[in-house]
Amino acid sequence: MIYQRSSALFAEAKKVIPGGVNSPVRAFNAVGGDPIFVKEAKGAYLYDEDGNRLIDYIASWGPMILGHAFEPVVKAVIEKAKKGTSFGMPTEIETQLAELAVSMVPNIDKIRFVNSGTEACMSAVRLARGFTGKDKIIKFAGCYHGHSDSFLIQAGSGAVTFGAPNSPGVTQGTAKDTLLAEYNDLASIQTLVKANKGAIAAIIIEPVAGNMGCIIPTDEFIQGLRTLCTQEDILLIFDEVMTGFRLGKGGAQEVLGIDADILTFGKVIGGGLPVGAFAARSEIMGHLAPEGPVYQAGTLSGNPLAMSAGLAMLSELNSKPEIFNSLAQKTEYLHQGFEKVLNAKGIPFQINRFGSMLSVHFTEEPVIDFASSAKGNNETFKKYFHGMLDKGIYLPPSAFESYFLNDALSYADLDETISALEGLSL
Ligand SMILES: *Cc1c(COP(=O)(O)O)cnc(C)c1O
């Protein structure tokens, strides 16, 4: 495939945008080479600036669950735009999307819309601190909750320890209030909770992780986490920015059968426009301004275009819940196809899958947390990524990212993807 124009556009972009991109993972740093510039997309296909057609497995990192340029969403946005794009005043459609979201998701009474998943998680933690009157939070190594200061903390080689910031610009003062635990390791949380008794406001987790590959929580881990939070008066925050409205109508809470105290959303809830949200029972949401003292605001929050896209998307998913099954079946089909091909090639690999999320890791060990995910062979991953790209298959350009299947993918597309893998020498 030829990527001449993409490379030229990237060179231009780098002159005026740091690294040529507005979000780092787009830059292909993990796999090398120049990123592909998209011109347009429809259904399961991306069309790039060189005229290549790519089968898309990232779906804008999740939102395009029904495929690109999904007709009802496009129509809703166009109609809304004609009537004005922002007012800074309340509109009826905000309530309509809120009512629909609250009806689909278990265990929430109220929802506040923001503009990104980052904002949602940042605000959820502030609310948890305001509600409990406690300062510290626990997060898990390898979980991503957006780029706000409190979350840019990583583990030192798997050690359960006080967080050290992993980005310049995050102060030690902020970092000391974020404690790190290991995913799927209940003992690592128990240790932290014991050592910080009465000081922990919340534990935030991706209930099915997607930012270190796709990692599935064990029942024992996720149930133990819930029990511990209840016992210790710690709020459990499920970051469902990825899993919400993707794993099922009610997200991870519904499929795992666990109630969280605060939920955060993003990605699918905006139908491809910038929307995030956080939600909880009234008792907790009542602490939020203007009802309560915890401040949170946004000039463009609840923006009518964004709300119209979200409403069209959630209405479709709500009225056709069989979509979630169809997506899971397609993902299973891809999983089985890949497994067969990779087994025949005789190279070590792990495939993790949950619903319509999947990831491929070139390692012999089961991938259950950040440390085991990081053991994947990145040289093989690079060959795999670029080999697939050359055959017109667009996968996440990092082994730490989950694939997000979209329902516009046909079985013919999946077969084409599996055949592409068959043709690779890894
Ligand atoms: C994408 C993501 C975020 C951040 O959302 P943005 O809209 O990119 O700010 C937060 N949490 C999880 C689990 C995510 O996948």
Structure in words:
- The chain has 426 residues and is an alpha/beta fold.
- The protein has 2 domains: 4-69 and 321-422, Aspartate Aminotransferase, domain 1, CATH 3.90.1150.10; 71-319, Aspartate Aminotransferase, domain 2 (3-Layer(aba) Sandwich).
- It contains 14 helices and 16 strands.
- The protein has helices at residues 4-16, 71-81, 92-104, 117-132, 172-175, 186-195, 219-232, 251-256, 282-285, 304-319, 322-345, 370-374, 378-390, 411-422; strands spanning 38-42, 45-48, 53-56, 110-114, 136-140, 153-154, 164-165, 178-181, 200-205, 235-239, 262-265, 276-280, 350-354, 357-361, 393-394, 403-404.
- The strands form 4 sheets. Strands 4-12-11-10-9-5-8 form a 7-stranded mixed sheet, with helices on both faces. It has a 4-stranded mixed sheet with strand order 1-2-3-15.
- Helix 2 (71-81) packs antiparallel against helix 10 (304-319) and helix 11 runs parallel beside helix 14 (411-422).
- It is globular, with a radius of gyration of 21 Å.
- Bound molecules: pyridoxal-5'-phosphate (PLP).
- Pyridoxal-5'-phosphate (PLP) is lined by residues 116-118, 121, 144-146, 206, 210-211, 239, 241-242, 266, 276.
- The site of pyridoxal-5'-phosphate (PLP) has 15 residues, from helix 4.
- Pathway: Porphyrin-containing compound metabolism; protoporphyrin-IX biosynthesis; 5-aminolevulinate from L-glutamyl-tRNA(Glu): step 2/2.
- This is Glutamate-1-semialdehyde 2,1-aminomutase.
- It is found in: Cytoplasm.
